[in-house]
Amino acid sequence: xxxxDIRTTDSGRALLPTATPARTRAAVRELLRPQRGLAFxxxxxxxxxxxxxxxxxxxxGHIVDVVTEHRSPDALTLPVVALxxxxxxxxxxTALGMSLVxxxxxxxxxxxxxxxxxxxxxxxxxxxxxxxxxxLNSRVTRDVSRVADAVRGALPELARSALSIVLTLGALALxxxxxxxxxxxAVPVQAHTARWYVRNAVPLYAKERIATGTQQQQLLxxxxxxxxxxxxRLQKGHTRQVTERSRAAVELTxxxxxxxxxxxxxxxxxxxxxxxAVLVTGFLLVRDGSAxxxxxxxxxxxxxxxxxxxxxxxxxxxxxxxATAGLARLVGVVDEPAPVAAARADDRTTAAGPPSVTLTxxxxxxxxxxxxxxxxxxxxxxxxxxxxxGTTGAGKxxxxxLVAGLHRPQAGRIDVGGEEPDEAGQLVGLVxxxxxxFAGPLVDDLRLARPxxxxxxxxxxxxxxxxxxxxxxLPEGLDTVVGDGxxxxxxxxxxxxxxxxxxxxxxxxxxxxxxxxxxxxSGARQLDEAAEQALRGRTALVVAHRLSQAASADRVxxxxxxxxxxxxxxxxxxxxxxQYAALWQAWSDSRSSSTP
Amino acid sequence: MGxxxxxxxxxxxxxxxGQLRRVALxxxxxxxxxxxxxLVPVLIGVVIDQAVAGQDAGRLALWLGVLALMYVTLSWxxxxxxxxxxxxAEEAAHTLxxxxxxxxxxxxxxxxxxxxxxxLANVATxxxxxxxxxxxxxxxxxxxxxxxxxxxxxxxxxxxxxGLIVLLGTPVLLWLGHLLSKxxxxxxxxxxxxxxxxxxxxxDLVAGLRVLKGLGAQQAAVERYRRTSRIxxxxxxxxxxxxxxxxxxxxALTGGFIALIALVGGRLALNGSLTxxxxxxxxxxxxxxxxxxxxxxxxxxxxxxxxxxxARVAEVLAAGPAVVDGDDPVAEPVRGDLRxxxxxxxxxxxxxxxLRAGQLTGIAVTDPAGAEALLRxxxxxxxxxxxxxxxxxxxxxxxxxxxxxAAVLVAAHDAALFEGSLAANVTPEEESSSGADGDRPLTERAMAAARADEVAESLxxxxxxxVGEGGRSLxxxxxxRVLLARALRAGAPVLVVHxxxxxxxxxxxxxxxxxxxxxxxxRTTIVVTNSPALLAVTDHVILLDAGRVGxxxxxxDLVRTDATYRxxxxx
Lengths: 596, 571
Description:
heterodimer; A: alpha/beta; Rossmann fold; 62% helix; disordered N terminus; B: alpha/beta; ABC transporter transmembrane region fold; 3 domains
């Protein structure tokens, strides 16, 4: 079952692919290519800024020389004015350069995240499910923000530091190549330290992130379940778990701190070695007359001014590393092949009215060898409403997903008005008990289903599902921000919203999978009425939760262990005295238990 | 804990006091480090002056030795000091985190009212961390003061004029930079908020992927995301530009300041009141001084954040309890008579109710709010606004809430499952007293009664299968059966269950009803539900209508005689 690019974890999940380093680099180049001019201008300005800034030390050195040579105070004017000029030019060029560099990075990042979202939304659902929904979610949240942070913070800083280092070393060489040689004494120590750090830090931080995540999860679990914890008096166990997880996170953070501090200690050694070497070189060069005291001063100041950028660059290596890993995971998804769009006539004639749905010999299994559906034949005539009934695990939801085109059957054929349903199709609308309220104004949530809908159409849809009343009573009416971070809707209101979206999307065929089941036993009737409205005039397959839904359907299909065992109208099936009749008996018995 | 009056300031003070030894140690060592850092440029000046300019090899060796000693000292003092500080910050946060969780789980409740779990978890992580970080900020502040003091002394010793220029000029410089960049900063913050929006929208769309696919609305979503992303990009670019100019401004100001020092220092050196080395040192010190002064700004921001976080933490810790504290233990053995008199709360309007010991009572409602209020009263999540609830003749308010919950278990409709195996969820207390083999038949019976054994059979590892975070890897019907098994397994003398089978199919529901009845034979059991399958197996049914008892009798009688009941139950 596994293809080469699918990594299988020990939990048996096939994670979404991660791009190779070469492919990641290529993707970055592609993203940057349209803005080559911007890139050159930005980096050019940064080089100018850094180079101009490096004039500071020689100018200070020059002042030292003026002092050593006891010249007149007027000789100070020129270098001082030059210093002020350097400050202004450096400030302006840095500002312009950094603006351009961040424009470059941010534009590329925006394009990347757009490509990512576009591809992520078109990934086949079973592909995402195999990877676990956490995989895609962590990419879109953590990886995107990690890359964004790097582009925003680390990248400009790293560029500036790297330029400072390179140009400062160049400037040292200009003073005298022997100064450069002396300064480079620090490099092996720094390089070794950086390698040592990255080697230890990467796994440690990965562990720390996991521990922090586990702690967060534990807290959500415990706090979210506080009522349950109290009811069952589980305080001791939960407190112990929270303590353990928090302790683990603290200790890993401290390991990280210790590592970081050892890292700084080693950098201190490098600083000392380099500084001493430069000072000794200055001493020697002044002795043999090849450098002035001012030059020696400038060299020492140069080296001292390297401390900052070197530390910054080495510390940022870590961020850069984790951003690269995030980037590879994003590019991996962007590079997933787009699902082959079935060549089909887009100019579908809806005028012909709702189509029929035909299933011929449909079988399906999620795990090889454990089939969920066996050889199902079923026809739903135009505008007919078919209720699907059966015990939990009979395969109702799977059948619903197949008809909606979310999965492709492994054998057999599904035909909706002459086409095979697929995920992208507007042919079949599916509403399940999984509710999601999209964050943002309520009107935007509804317009996902019909982007060009007029406000009156939205109101009408809400009215039809009986939601207009409460929607208008929201703090800002239909413009109220709902969903994550906004006004929270109860489960049955969210479900009404889902039905309103369905009305707006206006698909000719509708599949409802227990779309009204989650409401408590008293809120259900209202939802059933809303569903009733949403189904009017469409070909419909309804996975029935309450048998009253089955009774009101045109036809009832009973599914058992993945097979259609009964098929007929409510009355026919009752008369047949089979499974459905037994189910109905149990259902209506409880409703009129007085029968002796 | 928290006698009502706890303020954010108390939380901060307590957090620092708890780590006082570490903070003191860290501060002392940090001061040594600052001294060292400040003296590095001074030593560079000395080496140039005495060894390089004077060409004295002996002095060169001597001063390089001193420099080495300095480096060893500053390096170690930094390492140990920072470690003490970070440890202090982390430990303080850890202590606070446990205190918050302790308060939330407190038997009297009340801390989580009006707060989302995610919000509270955030208080326990992010806010606790920020309060802890105040320890580190405080230390850094002390270090910075030490750094400024050392530089001040060194500069004044070198030259009073130059020292004063640097000491007075640096704060002015920083203040100027701050003043000029303030509007930029403010704009940048607003823009950053807008920029962060794009990531939020992306995550939200991915979370709702299934819904999008169900509607075939992916294309609309992609187009919407592209617009959001472009708006965010524009905001980010404005913000980045503001930040760039801020950086440029600070660079220009600093450079100008160095030029000024060079001018004054050069003149002083030329007229002989300053040696060459002193001039070099002064320039170095001026540059060094920017560090500690910037630290002050950082410490200030950190303290402000710490204060805001401490206020949020204090709010949770000082939250009033939801129910009154009683101390009386529950009298053993529990008979299981529940009596409500004139109870007013939420949907209940002066409810009088007698729930007889040893019976299986069904409670049907015309308004879900009534059921919710009744459950909250019995589980002592809230006390009634007026009226009383008694267990075996003793008002619940006199009883210790923990003891009461051992006697009266309320199994809520939306009770939580916890990450872990199915078995661990059904027998949660077993964790502490493992090896209670005698209870295994009990667990198995409870699982069978709730038909949770069938759930276990359908899972890959049976009862050892993990249920995922919040039990989310189970379907609605599976969850409910596990919840019910746990409630039955707990074996409380009085059990109240609410809507235990709304997501279960009809056949299974009927079997569960039988299982429930059999399992709880002879013990007080109350089922709050409108499901006829469950009501049919009860001994007695009470209909709550308009917050009072509307009708009473057996399910069969009520179906026959009461129209309101029929509408409520047989919809």
